[in-house]
From TrEMBL:
Family assignment from sequence similarity: Belongs to the GPI family.
SUPFAM superfamilies, per database record: SIS domain
Catalytic residues (positions): E333 (proton donor), H364, K474
Sorted UniProt keywords: Cytoplasm, Gluconeogenesis, Glycolysis, Isomerase
Gene3D superfamilies: 1.10.1390.10, Glucose-6-phosphate isomerase like protein, domain 1 (3.40.50.10490)
Protein known as: Glucose-6-phosphate isomerase
UniProt function note: Catalyzes the reversible isomerization of glucose-6-phosphate to fructose-6-phosphate.
The protein's enzyme class: isomerase
UniProt GO MF annotations: carbohydrate derivative binding; glucose-6-phosphate isomerase activity; monosaccharide binding
GO CC annotation, single: cytosol
Length: 501
């Protein structure tokens, strides 16, 4: 049997062919090999350097790394996060997983729904605003969902406040009236400094506004209900989710509460169903037919064969403007690792740096480097067939046309004697085309990215579900605030300059 080392060697021996040749030689075969539709989303990898030989090497790698076994473990509650001795059961929140976690998720969703109904029925008075306080995975997902899907007729004003910089909370206070505000404190651990400080300031804001029983306006979204109760939130207003749902995979749990409240329960249920459809595809599709695995093949090709240190994602859709930030956490916190599952040095590139923005804005800001810079950067375009507005068709046509033209220009390039006007071309891109952006398609899209991250982790042999890398910085920030830690002279001088003594 081919070992992982053999498969990596085969990839090292593989030579990329020019993109224009790959696409031009037999266009029909190319499209058939590299363009697929899953959950009404078209994934187009035709303008990447992936070819049959690279796919064969990467399929061998997947086999050598027991992709099928690890995928089975993911969906059946196996310990896929060995450093923390845990399963990773975000798919169970969508109904896809082992019976027990699926049942627990259903009970949680029932409680969420009852709370949504109670708020609507006026159990908390006349609520118009939801102040959602959380950070990282406890903020990026809900923020993305509400921003993307709540643009027309969101039933509540939602502010997601994550930064401990008081300017963020002050801005939210300025837009909300205390008597109509409900506060959701979202924290898996319920120990995160920034979140607890923001929550305490929100409580003070309500109290100072004369709200009777200000704590009664708080709900908690957490995997540690005991800690939320200690903080003062009544058990009846706590929506506890499972420890086996990772923070950056948690928008499907009660962390998604703002979306369920603002968009309505049916929309939240559609979101889960869209993700479940992608779960089923990922669980059942074999080999290169599996779109999440195929995307991971492209990622490995660029990160580990062609030396690309970054991956750029551009949403050509204003509704998805927060997607790049969401993906940064999902991809970089999951796969930004340097050791394998058994703690040995990884010895190759882990996750590339994810960056990006929104099109067409980014074209006028950063695309210069993509078209002519010295870095090779695989670019991902995300675009929808249907616009979200009633303005003249010219808007959508220009938007989509620009998106498609960028991929074509990156690939084709244009030769010129004048170096400044020379476009080298042969630059890869992937295009993800959605019919519409709605709860169902967004659920499927986000689940696609989650499973692609997992597939990459399997190919690399790393654990995508822990994040010890962020702990040291947290500890030192605490040590600095409490004066309980010794720092080096340069840091001491900086502290003195910034904070006084
Ligand atoms: O939900 P919590 O426990 O407040 O953590 C917030 C975020 O902080 C992290 O632990 C990183 O510091 C993320 O993984 C997580 O999403």
């Amino acid at each position: 049997m081919t070992t992982a080392a053999d498969a990596w060697q085969a990839l090292a021996d593989w030579e990329p062919r020019p993109l224009a040749g790959l696409v031009g030689a037999d266009p029909e075969a190319r499209l058939q090999l590299l363009v697929r539709s899953v959950a009404d989303i078209r994934f187009d990898f035709a303008k990447t350097h992936l070819d049959e030989a690279a796919i064969a090497a990467l399929l061998d790698l997947a086999k050598a790394q027991d992709f099928a076994g690890r995928r089975k473990a993911l969906f059946s509650g196996g310990i896929v996060n060995p450093s923390e001795g845990r399963a990773a059961e975000h798919s169970a929140e969508r109904g896809e997983g082992a019976p027990d976690p699926v049942h627990r998720a259903q009970l949680l969703h029932q409680r969420m729904r009852m709370l949504v109904d109670a708020i609507e029925a006026g159990a908390f008075g006349e609520i118009r605003h939801l102040l959602h306080i959380g950070i990282g995975g406890s903020a990026l997902g809900p923020d993305l969902l509400v921003d993307a899907l709540g643009r027309h007729g969101s039933r509540y004003d939602v502010a997601v406040v994550s930064n401990v910089d008081g300017a963020a909370l002050s801005e939210a206070f300025a837009g909300f009236s205390p008597e109509h505000t409900l506060v959701a404190v979202a924290s898996k651990t319920f120990t995160t400094t920034e979140t607890l400080l923001n929550a305490a300031s929100a409580l003070q804001w309500l109290e100072e506004a004369g709200i009777e029983d200000a704590l009664g306006r708080f709900i908690a979204l957490t995997a540690h209900p005991d800690k939320a109760m200690e903080w003062g939130i009544d058990e009846t207003r706590i929506l506890p989710f499972s420890e086996t749902v990772g923070g950056r995979y948690s928008l499907w749990s009660s962390i998604g509460f703002p979306a369920a409240l603002a968009l309505g329960w049916d929309a939240f249920a559609d979101l889960l169903e869209g993700a479940a459809e992608m779960d089923r595809h990922f669980r059942l599709a074999e080999g290169a037919d599996n779109i999440c695995l195929l995307a991971a093949f492209v990622d490995q090709l660029y990160a580990n064969r062609l030396g690309c240190q970054t991956r750029a994602v551009f949403a050509y859709d204003e509704r998805l403007r927060l997607l790049p930030a969401y993906l940064q956490q999902l991809e970089m916190e999951s796969n930004g690792k340097s050791v394998t599952l058994d703690g040995a040095p990884l010895g190759r590139a882990s996750a590339p740096i994810t960056w990006g923005g929104v099109g067409t804005d980014a074209q006028h800001a950063v695309f210069q480097l993509l078209h002519q810079g010295t870095h090779l950067t695989p670019v991902e375009f995300i675009v929808a067939r249907e616009p979200d507005h009633l303005l003249d068709d010219a808007h959508h046509e220009t938007l989509v046309g620009n998106c498609i033209a960028q991929g074509a220009a990156l690939m084709a390039g244009r030769a010129s004697e004048d170096g400044a006007r020379h476009y080298p071309g042969n630059r890869p891109s992937t295009t993800i085309l959605l019919d519409q952006i709605n709860p169902r398609s967004l659920g499927a899209l986000i689940a696609f990215f989650e499973h692609r991250v997992f597939a990459n982790a399997v190919l690399l042999g790393i654990n995508p579900f822990d994040q010890f890398g962020v702990e040291l910085g947290k500890e030192m920030a605490k040590g600095l605030a409490e004066g309980s830690m010794e720092f080096d002279p340069a840091t001491r001088a900086l502290m003195l300059a910034a904070l006084g003594d």
